[in-house]
Amino acid sequence: MASFENLLYAPDAATGILTITLNRPSKLNALNAATIEEIRQAMQLALDDAQVRGIILTGSGEKAFVAGADISELAALNDINARRAAELGQEAFCLIEESPKPVIAAVNGFALGGGCELAMACHLRVASDNARFGQPEVNLGLIPGYGGTQRLTQLIGKAKALELLLTADMLKADEALRLGLVNHVVPQAELLDFCRQLLGRILTKAPLAVGMVIDCVNAHYDKERNGFQTEATLFGRAFGTEDFREGTAAFLAKRPALFKGN
After folding, report:
1. Which one is catalytic: 98, 117, 163, 224?
2. Gene3D superfamilies under this entry (predicted)?
């Protein structure tokens, strides 16, 4: 089993679900450069492992998913290495966003700054009822650097995203749900079970088709791609898969489909 310093990597062979837990409880799971690199490594490991079919990303403890960036580390950066730090964070988070394997953020408390950005990179977000979301970077004379200005706008719209980015206000879980920032809000004691059930439902579907849907949705926001063309291309490609033949055969035979991801 993979071993990391700042996160826990726990695959479940029976379900195909990998749980990645940010594990810096004394720092409220704050992101530093080492943790971001471990997130990238863990995601790459998961993508390369055929036994991993879906991923839950969460934080240790009951207070924070990720309470933000490690400010002491940020304070030591200059304008040159700060840009590189942002690029490395964006690369790691894009690996999550572009994963053909579904990733659910189980947001178990504060998701601020880089923590909010990390949650937004996941395909779905489920929040505990004590969760709080925000991008407080302007309080420090900074802006989000790991994709926050882009993904927050995509998820909740330009006007509200600008308000939150400019005021640094925090959102409670119910308001995040109303705005569409999260998909569900549940009691904290039920959070991981709910995420496993939700991901389990997704994992009954055709794996290649799930990955294609993720790619098509991402293409809508990619200025270098045409979302409609991507959809048409992948629609055609789906017809060449064994999963398509199994899915249609199962439907016609009125039996559950047994998808193999090929």
Report:
1. 117
2. 2-enoyl-CoA Hydratase, Chain A, domain 1 (3.90.226.10), Lyase 2-enoyl-coa Hydratase, Chain A, domain 2 (1.10.12.10)
Residue 137 among the catalytic residues: yes
Say what the pTM is: 0.96
User: Is 224 annotated in the active site?
Assistant: no
Angle at 67 between CA 96 and CA 73, to 5 degrees: 90
Encode the chain (262 residues) as per-residue pLDDT tens digits. 678 999 999 999 999 999 999 999 999 999 999 999 999 999 999 999 999 999 999 999 989 999 988 888 888 889 889 999 999 999 999 999 999 999 999 999 999 999 999 999 999 999 999 999 999 999 999 999 999 999 999 999 999 999 999 999 999 999 999 999 999 999 999 999 999 999 999 999 999 999 999 999 999 999 899 999 999 999 999 999 999 999 999 999 999 999 999 9
* Partners of 54 in the β-ladder: 17
Check 62, 137, 190, 246 and give the catalytic one.
137
